[in-house]
Amino acid sequence: MSTARPFHLVAFSLTLALSSPAFAQQAQQAAPPPGSPAATITIPGNQLPPPPQQFGGKIERDARNSTPFWPSRVVPPKGAPNVLLIITDDAGYGVPSTFGGVIPTPALDRIAQNGLRYTNFHSTALCSPTRAALITGRNHHSVGYGVIAEQATGFPGYDSIITKDKATIGRILSDNGYHTAWFGKNHNTPEYQASQAGPFDQWPTGMGFEYFYGFMGGDTNQWEPGNLVRNTTPIYPYEGKPGWNLVTAMADEAIDYVNRMNALSPDTPFFVKFAPGATHAPHHPTPEWVKKIGDMHLFDQGWNKLRETIFENQKKLGVIPQNAKLTPWPKDLIKEWDQLSADEKKLFIRQAEVFAAYAAYADNEIGRVIQSIQDMGKLDNTLIIYIEGDNGTSAEGQPNGTPNEVAMFNQITPSVEDQLKYFYDVWGTDRTYNHMSIGWAWAFDTPFSWTKQIVSHFGGTRQGMAISWPEVIKDKGGIRHQFHHVIDVVPTILEAARIKQPDIVDGIKQSPIEGVSMTYTFDAKNANAPSTHTTQYFEMFADRAIYNDGWIASTKVLRPPWVTIAKLPSPGDYPWELYDLRNDWTQAEDVAAKNPDKLKELQALFWKEAEKYQVLPLDSTVASRMITPRPSLSAGRTSFAWTRPMTGTPNGDAPSLLNSSYNFNVDVDIPDGGAEGVLVTQGGRFGGYGLYVLKSKPVFTWNLVDLKRVRWEGPELTPGKHLIEFDFKYDGLGAGTMVFGNYTGIGQGGTGTLKVDGKAVATEKMEHTLPFILQWDEAFDIGSDTGTPVDDNDYQPPFAFTGKINRLALDIDRPKLSPDDVKRLQEAARAAGDGPSADDGQTASSGAQVGTVGLSLVEKIQVRMDKREGCRKQAEAKGLGMVDRVKFVQECARQ
């Protein structure tokens, strides 16, 4: 007689057993056995990916007699924290309320109050370099980012390539079982590898981040980002959505991601890098935030009073020592507030309010991401590192500020009068690519001197940072003053997660991580412990410094950051300063004359570090590096052809028409009833060109940074086949003149002719062309337009061509210097002291009511350096040895 019970009774009994407290406790304690589907393993981590796991089952001829064995899933060490790494953009030490600023940043305040504030944390003074150091734990030159990706040159420290022996924190954590994602700015893909042709190994998804939602490059239009991608695919989610803003969209994406990972795999920790574009230009907050900040009237008393207020707040908060000195206002560079006209004050206040609204808005969205982690119940074991700024506040807005950052990079500065007339009411909206006056940048770096780009002084490198980890950091609200650097973030995360740096990744031996962990500061007993980071070099555009055990030797700043073309001495001839940071927190007193031996010691240390970390060769150029030839899909080519629509080719891989003659030739079919749409375009609302058909009429438009548009228009096209041609003859000598320190070959004018079926239908003379760059967050598009239009009055994207493009050809004729040109340029260079020289028209801004005093200082520096450079050449001609040569130059320059 069978004793088996009915199935439903068996199931009921099993349910009771599984739900009993004893069984639940036993199940929680028992780890899944090796080979089972739920088995996990924590790897040693010395080799990534780990070697294949050995099969531990049994294989016979018949599966019924065999034993399966699943590879264990890799998981981090037990208790490893989630990690939220936040870094904002272009924000100095005095920006957030957390470090004495007047701009409310409650999310950063929250992290500081629930954890620790770090008052002596440093960046590299520029975007790409800081971010490369942040994700690798190595110095920026060590990973190819001596400058931003768009200025890469063919030297190991400057080629914008993170080599395979320097795995990122994303790769290390991912291979150790973390979920990894990156939201926001990606400024660490070489400009010439950012197209859909790849390669993709230098994109976030190729560097160990499993998911990426963000923009490629240094900045973007937050209303209509033309360089936004998901993983490696361009996306345009703003189309048809007025009021859409990327800051909110990426916060929504990050919140969705962490909740999705928590739902799918709640026991697996996540690592999220969250990098909003704020507060890099363009400053694009929502109108609600502009009103909130405007109603607070934070900036009505001007930048000098703002500095004083921030300085007082910093002492009250204890984020600077009580004996710290406020560095002096640079009267020879920037006018004091009381010297400004009423119009200047009105414009500049508006600029500051929009900047502050952008900072507050971004912090609010960051706060939403943090709150979502708390709502999941995971905040206690989440390590949050919130760094305010990847460098000091940017002074790249020029003396007057600018409604269009693209104009600034092309050496064009609109007057205050024009900005008030045409842009004041739309400042910060999708109609501007705006930046603020240099006076505000200096004030937001209080209490230090200088700004972004400058590494020799802390205004460019000191960042406010807060870290919380409730489960571990118990000294809530504590302050830490130890010197640390952005390269210390990776080793801190690895130590917190108890994961080692790998020795081998993909078969390649790894170079050592160069930073040190900050986890020792988490313990209250180490609040005043000596820093474990004792030596750190700094270098950017030949400006440099060396920190060692409380001292810093710094070169004198010879080029203000808002001057992108300047005559400078050989980097080896820069004068040096010395600061005793143990008694001078803000670099207020140069003590080089009192400590010559200490200065020599630190100078020697700098050169040692420079050789060790790929800093050489030093290069002081800025603007010219933007048009330095680099590898790309178009490098070395002068003829191009396309036979079908294609959009999304970024500037780094697109053909460049700047400073050249060129010819577009388009074979099209116009259907019955006419056609319209884009044939080819590059750039957009803030600088670029477009050839398109508008109501069946061919049009070519050059948008000169939204300040002027030159337009060619032909007659209406009849149905059928047509050949539309635009031919441009450039009048200048081209970029080759820059080799001789001469900028007259670029930005010159030319004559454009629009033709239909071989007949000229419109001819226009352009007095000037753009010398350096088009709108960088837009693409080279054929057949339709992504991003923004070159002329809003003509069309709105995508404006796809409704006819047929049979073939589109482009031929570029880049000027070549003749022997006579070379001889003339060489003679001019020798007459100028055989050093690089700037064209006077490039350094002087039309209508620059603020900062003309600063430009005269640059000119004085140039005269002095011309003489020194000439002396150096005389010494070389005499064949003097090094010691005698230095002595000769010093005596010659004093005469």
CATH architecture of the largest domain: 3-Layer(aba) Sandwich
Number of helices: 18
Question: Can you give the helix content as a percent range?
Answer: 25-40%
**Cα-to-Cα separation, first versus last residue:** 121 Å
- What is the chains' assembly state? single chain
Structural class: alpha+beta
Q: What's the CATH topology name of the largest domain?
A: Alkaline Phosphatase, subunit A
Number of strands: 32
Number of domains: 2
Indicate the radius of gyration in whole angstroms. Answer: 30 Å
CATH class identity of the largest domain: Alpha Beta
Mind summarizing the main beta sheet?
A: 11 strands, mixed
Instruction: Assess the beta-strand content as a share of residues.
Output: 15-25%
Name the shape in a single word.
globular
Query: pLDDT average, as an integer?
Result: 91
Low-confidence stretches: 1-28, 834-865
Protein name: Arylsulfatase
Organism: Bradyrhizobium huanghuaihaiense
Region (Disordered): 25-63, 828-848
Keywords: Calcium, Hydrolase, Metal-binding, Signal
Task: Walk me through what this model shows.
Helix 17 crosses helix 18. 25% of the residues lie in helices and 20% in strands. The radius of gyration is 30 Å and the shape is globular. It is built from 18 helices and 32 strands. Strands 4, 5, 6, 7, 8, 9, 10, 11, 12, 13 and 14 form an eleven-stranded mixed β-sheet that branches. It has 895 residues and is an alpha+beta fold. The chain folds into two domains: 450 residues, Alkaline Phosphatase, subunit A, CATH 3.40.720.10; 187 residues, Jelly Rolls (Sandwich), CATH 2.60.120. Keywords: Calcium, Hydrolase, Metal-binding, Signal. Belongs to the sulfatase family. This is Arylsulfatase. One of its GO terms (molecular function) is hydrolase activity.
